[in-house]
Every structure is written in C-alpha cells, then in structure tokens.
Amino acid sequence: MAPPSPDISKRKATDKPISPPPLKRKTQSSISKGAVASFFTPTSQKPKERTTWSERAPDDDTPPTLLVGRYEPENMGEPNRRKRRKIAAFDLDSTLITTASGKKFGDDPGDWKWWDSSVPSRLRKLYAEEDFCVVILSNQGGLTLHVDPKSKGPKGGSKAKVDKFKQKCNAVLSQLDLPTTVYAATARDIFRKPRAGMWEQVCQDYDIPADEVDLAGSVFVGDAGGRTAQLKNGETGAAAVAKDFSCSDRNLAHNVGITYKTPEEFFLGEPPREFARDFDLAVYPYPKSDVDGEGDGDVLLEKVNKQDIVLFCGPPGAGKSTFYWRHLKRLNYERVNQDTLKSRAKCFKAAADLLDEGTSIVIDNTNPDADGRKEWIDFAQKHGVPIRCVWFKVPKALCEHNDVVRALNKPMNPEARTALPALAFNGFFSRLREPKVKEGFQDVVEIEFKFRGTKEEYAIWGRYWC
Fold first, then answer.
1. Mean pLDDT value of segment 250-277
2. The pTM is what?
3. Residue 46: which residues within 8 A CB-CB, separation 6 or more?
C-alpha cells in the first residue's frame, strides 16, 4: 500500500526569490596590528623596552605602594647621566595628558592625548636647553600593587588596572622620549601628595642630596591648586570655571619649598587664579612665647572640685588625648578612653571603679550628641560627683590634618593609632550638638586649637599632610 501523499495545501506558496545569505560584516578588533606582529616576533628581535618598572615601600614593615617607571631613550649617553640640580616635576592627569574620549577617567590605556600640543616640546626644552631634571609625580589611588590576602573584596582586577596604567605611561614616555621617571603613589601613606615622600624618592633615585637641590630654580606643575570657581570671559561670553578638586599639588610645592604653577600658567602663560585652602598653616604659626615646648603658660583648666568627672567633647584629631596628658594627668585625673577599652560598658565600669577609689576621671571620647552626654551626666549624679565639660572647638580640616600627622609619624603617635577614614569626621560633625551648661554640667570650658609642642614637633606638624 502506497504512503499517503503530502498535504500540498499546508505548504506556503511564494513567488519571491530566495535571498542569498547576508554578507558577513568584518569585525573590528581592538588589538592593533603592531601588537599582533609583536606577539609573533621572537624576543631576541623585539626592540628593548625603554621603561623599567620597580616598586618602593614606605618602610621595611609594609608592602610596596609606590610604582616607579624609569624611561631611558635609546641613545642615552653619559652626558645625560650627570646630576641636574634643578627639578621640574609634573602631575600626570589633567596636567601633561587628558583623555582623548572626553571621559573624566579613561580605562583604555590608549585613551589619552597631550593636555596641550605644546606640552612635549616644552618638556624637551626644559631638559635639553634649561638643564632641568624632568619627573612626573602622580597620585593613583585607584591602583593596588599588592592586594591584602585577608581582603574580602574581588582581587582579580587589581593587576589588570596596574598593567593598563603601565601601558599608558609607556606610550606617554615613549612619545616624550626624554630621560625621565614617573612616580605613582597608590596608597594614603608618605608617598601621597601633598606629602613629600615622592619628592624625597626623586632626590634619592637621582642621587641629589636634598641640600644640593636648586629649590629656587625648581618647579612643580599640577592642576590641584585649590583654585576657586569663577566666571571666565571668552569669545562666546562668560563661562563658569569649576573650582579645583584639591590643593594637594600647591601644598606639595609648599612642603618642598619650590615654585608652584598650574598647567594654564606654565604651558599657556595665563595669569594665576585666586585660590583657597580648607586648612591654612599660616593661621597656626609656631608660638614664639613657648618655653621648652610646653605651651604658652596659660592655665587651660583648673581643678575646682575635690573629686569630679571631666567629659571631653570634640572630633577625632582635635587634641583631646594630648590635652589630657599635658594638662590633666598632672592634676591627678585618670583617663577613661573607649578606644582603649573597646566598649561603652567597659568605660562605665572603669569609671565607677575609679570613683569608688576617690579618683577624679576624664572621659576621653568624642561625645558629639546630647543623648550620649546625658548618660554620663546621669552617671555623675548617681555617684554624687559634679561633672564638667571641655569642648574642643576645632574645624574638621584641622582635625584631619592632626589625625594624619599622628598616624604617619611614630614619635608623635605613642598609642600607634592608624589614620581614620573620612567617615569618622563626617559622622561626628553630622551628629554634633554643641554642649551647654543647661544639660547638667557644672561648666563648659571651650578650648580652641593652638599648637603646643617642641620646635622639632612643629617641623613635622607644620607641613601639609592632607
């Protein structure tokens, strides 16, 4: 029996011709022909890499955080190796180069162009005709050279970011083709601008003793100059010019003792713009009346009760602990500090034990809000002793400065404290309610900051650190 015929009626009838398959589009590769050719070129035939990369650590106990790329042109002769006493140092991003794409930050190592067409020729003239040592000092907080193995975050992307940064620098230095070095500070340690760690490394690498550098003839050029916002007149009318994100480049130049210029001033010859610092060292000179570094002799707090509690109120870095050691310890006050005891409950327990012994105490914590202070006021009433308040009225920028000075200088950091995150300061000032006598205090003594220390300590403190 023959199989049934297919149902022709179910087929779609069409008179349209069958289209030929679409042409395949040629895909664009992001890999350059040069990179492909380089990959297949034997190592012995490849041109020598002109940039040598190394890493530096802030001290012997920590991993490296400073990335250093030293470029030597192909025809590097002995005359180029001699010492140069004048140093021309430059920031990298938004000073020597900018993104070609217009993005604020470029991820692609090829996404760059010279900040201005005059940049490379101006740098070559500095080296060849004006006898400058030319270097690049850049903060690169987005890079991590060595990931903490205990870190819970993703670790795979760190090496890729460093490799891309190296590729970009290799391209920049190759186009410039000058004997120069790029320094990239990747952590918030002594190398990060405005701290002078990178500058000191330059002097060491180029074998120039610090006292032999021609400071009067040297210069640092960078876009972080603390310039204020302004209206700038142009051909199409007035345009708003944003303020600088930081003053770190200007402050680095101040720390080192050299001239500072913005890219607009140095490369384009524009006049300087107004600038402002959140924290200005000029407001806090070394007090000339100090005797042996113990302050100006003022009695900042007298003991008026046989036994009492002194409650500190003030932001981190305001000088609370220093105030205790220099002024209240000698009045036989004992210190109760949550940073040491680790919990509020332990603070109350330690305070109760000391009061039972007949000892006066200082509560050395930040205590920003009235609710937290009330717990100590109630505690004092329960134990039948008066409570006084010392209010450290210190601006945030100064506190941040003090905190970094303490964290990065062992002689000024007896308790080995680490630098606090910005959240610690922002959190305090967002919660702050100035203390008042009506809360239940016997009195409120207001303390404004004044540097009290030795000249040696001021030589450290009196630099820009943030």
1. 97
2. 0.84
3. 38
